[in-house]
Amino acid sequence: MPEFAHRLAKAQALMKKADLSALLLTTEPDVRYFTGFLTRFWESPTRPWFVVIPAQGQPIAVIPAIGAHLMGQTWITDVRTWRAPNYDDDGIGLLADTLTEVTSAGERIGIPDQMETHVRMPFSDLNRLQQRLKSRMFASDAAIVRNIRMIKSDAEVLKIQTSCDIAERAFDRVAEIAQAGVPLSQIFRKFQALCLDEGADWVAYLAGAAGQGGYADVISPAADDPLENGDVLMLDTGLVTDGYFCDFDRNFSVGPPSQQVQSAHDTLMRATQAAFDIARPGATMADLFYAMNDVVNPDASGSDAGRLGHGVGMQLTEWPSIIPDDHTPLAAGMVLTLEPGVVVFGDKMMVHEENIVITVNTPQFLSRFQPEKMRVI
Amino acid sequence: MPEFAHRLAKAQALMKKADLSALLLTTEPDVRYFTGFLTRFWESPTRPWFVVIPAQGQPIAVIPAIGAHLMGQTWITDVRTWRAPNYDDDGIGLLADTLTEVTSAGERIGIPDQMETHVRMPFSDLNRLQQRLKSRMFASDAAIVRNIRMIKSDAEVLKIQTSCDIAERAFDRVAEIAQAGVPLSQIFRKFQALCLDEGADWVAYLAGAAGQGGYADVISPAADDPLENGDVLMLDTGLVTDGYFCDFDRNFSVGPPSQQVQSAHDTLMRATQAAFDIARPGATMADLFYAMNDVVNPDASGSDAGRLGHGVGMQLTEWPSIIPDDHTPLAAGMVLTLEPGVVVFGDKMMVHEENIVITVNTPQFLSRFQPEKMRVI
Predict the structure, then answer these.
(1) What DSSP designation does A328 have?
(2) Which of B125, B149, B173 is the last residue of a domain?
(3) Residues A330 and A357 in one domain
(4) Confidence of residue B217 (pLDDT cuts 50, 70, 90)
């Protein structure tokens, strides 16, 4: 399996530089990235799952017995299990033994400790593990996992492209399910069904809003209020196929858009295009921010949304972020969302989002860049 | 809002007993339980969300500005925000200031640290927070949050009932989408669409399997293999309405079941009934385990699945677990899954699951207990 072997080799090379004798992985994307272990069972918060990357040799899975069959179908051969849940020792002893086996006293064990991650185990177990391994040192993974995951392989880009294509086809069918009079909550349900019908494995994320000439919030659940003429309907989905997300939105005007709404749409398209035009190696995330912000928000340095885009892949949102403080240089294989927002009528907003992949030359849209004329339903 | 005020009062009474001057909440269900903050935006791992429960007074939300509008619609009045993501300080300063304000030097701050939870913030930020608050002590929350959440209010039971009813209606329609020749992956997509059509807000979890006379694994993604006559198809869903899960499965025989399969089904029904019959205050979780295990697995003390059921509510799986070591006494308001499994043909299994609520008298099924005859499609 060259893809996984390649990921492992990259990690082990960086571990050597960072003086780390092992990596301890605990989250769904980190575990999956190095093993291929794909299951929705992570929705259950009960069981912890651990993968240890040693300085040399293959990754070791330290997992509940219920996962042995599925992990056994990946490229991982060293699978150590316990019967979880176990109130006396829910895998911590087995994990400590494994980490002791692959490291020596005084050596450092890296844990991904940056933004967009956390240590997925009970806090009491994390403390217990640190007690058990006092002769080792827990340290930052020096962003190794994040930095490797940031650059997608061709196979990964293809999976994200597949999710984008499915979402586009679902967005193209929104007129089938959304008209004036239909409650937003029903539109949310039916849109998810459209995504599934077009081939999504599941719809991990759907947000949206509708309001006269714009909306006030982009993270609220759908209310039962019916759509009205003059509303702007926004749907933003992160659907998943084969474990990879897309993340983009589409706006629809219920009836012909007002001049202000069409103008806001135009502004969003210009902002997106401005970032797209410079999105190639040599530019930074901050450059993308200013390219968009100069169009949508020329008088200020940001908005409450906090950023104008981000990475996307095995997670709905990944490192890096399009903010002034992010100086990450763009590199071929990075998949990003461009997500400008604009204020309409003083207290409402409209947001727009596309997905792109950075290449050695010009970037490519993975979603289909929206035309000048706003979609009308 | 009597429901939320009641939750807060219970927490603060237990905090006093446990000598905790504040609780720090970081996970979606814990934050929502005390605030009502419901959004799918948690799917994005980028932003942390914090709620502080002081010894007296109202909860304080310390959250990214993008959530201010939605949090402002809950009963919470003290909402403190920062623009996230912020690479210099992603809310830790604001959180430390808030915790300092509501506690005094030497006092203890409780963090939920038990099974089924974790601290949802980057590990480096957790370390930074502990550094900033050296004059306070971080301690276990003494299972306060878990224990309060374990007993559901009538309003919560009603929400779970709603999710169960929706899932039952979807299961009743499985013959519409599943026949011999249809790939399992397509059945998964169409079943999720059925759940949405019947009223689910979203389908957070779907697992399942199909195989001749049983299946080998209950957590794998669906393959593209078509259903065949003689297969047993199992679908297990945790769909969500108004933020509450159901969690149960149904088995279907493709064509008339073999005698072994029907017999396995009978065994599973008898096991479920045996646990149901004793599920009332006075019994413990261990009692439920042995009631079922004596029927499905009389020669052994457990299986790789590790447990025969668990709590369900704001999470797909919650405390407590139906295992021999769990001596939690049943109490009115606990919502549980009964989930026996049985080995078929030596290397395959069948699992069954129902949802019940404990009352002061006999329990009640929230799902519809399955009849003796196995469902045939």
Answers:
(1) P
(2) B149
(3) yes
(4) confident
Same domain, B215 and B138: no
* 3-class secondary structure, A114: coil
CATH code at position A290: 3.90.230.10
In terms of Cα–Cα distance, which of A70, A84, A126 is closest to B323?
A84
Q: What is the pLDDT of residues A338-365, one digit of tens each?
A: 999 999 878 899 999 999 999 999 999 9
Same domain for B193 and B256, yes or no, is: yes
Phi-psi region of A21 (alpha: psi -120 to 50; beta: other; left: phi over 0): alpha
Yes or no, beta carbons of B206 and A203 under 8 Å apart: no
For residues B170 and B319, state if they share a domain.
yes
Question: B334-358: b or e for each residue (b if 16 or more CB lie within 10 Å)?
Answer: bbbbbbbbbbbeeebbbbbbbbbbb
With an 8 Å Cβ cutoff, are A123 and B118 in contact?
yes
Q: Are residues B198 and B256 in the same domain?
A: yes
Helix (H, G, I), strand (E, B) or coil at A248: strand
Q: Which domain holds residue B90?
A: 2-149
- Tell me the average pLDDT across A93-101: 98
The residues, any chain, with a CB within 8 Å of residue B130's CB and separated by 6 or more, are B138
Task: Tell me the per-residue pLDDT of B73-111, one tens digit each, with 9 for 90 and over.
Answer: 999 999 999 999 999 999 999 999 999 999 999 999 999
The reply to whether B145 and B161 lie within a common domain is no
* Chain A residues within 8 A of B66 when measuring between CB atoms: 218-219, 304-306
CA distance B43 to A315: 8
CA A156 centroid distance within chain: 13
Residue B222 vs residues A32, A200, A313, B238, B247: alpha-carbon distances, Å? 17, 12, 21, 16, 18
Closest Cα of chain A to B67: distance in Å? Answer: 7
ipTM exceeds 0.85 = yes
Contacts of A46 in chain B (CB under 8 A): 115-116, 310, 317, 321
Taking only Cα atoms into account, the Rg of chain B, rounded to an integer number of angstroms, comes to 23
Q: Hey, what amino acid is at B69?
A: H
Whether A17 and A159 map to the same domain: the answer is: no
Question: Sheet containing A78-82: which strands, arranged edge to edge?
Answer: A78-82, A60-64, A50-54, A22-25, A108-111, A137-140
- For chain A, how many structural domains are there in total? 2
Q: How far is A266 from chain B (nearest CA, A)?
A: 24
Inter-CA distances, B248 with A60, B163, B208, B234, B369, Å: 32, 11, 11, 10, 11
Asked whether residue B161 falls in the same domain as residue B143, the answer is no
Nearest to A40 among B65, B205, B305 (CB): B205
The amino acid present at A261, given as its one-letter code, is V
Give kind and range of the element (H or E) at residue A239. Answer: strand A231-241
pTM over 0.95: yes
Structure-block tokens of residue A333 = 């294989």
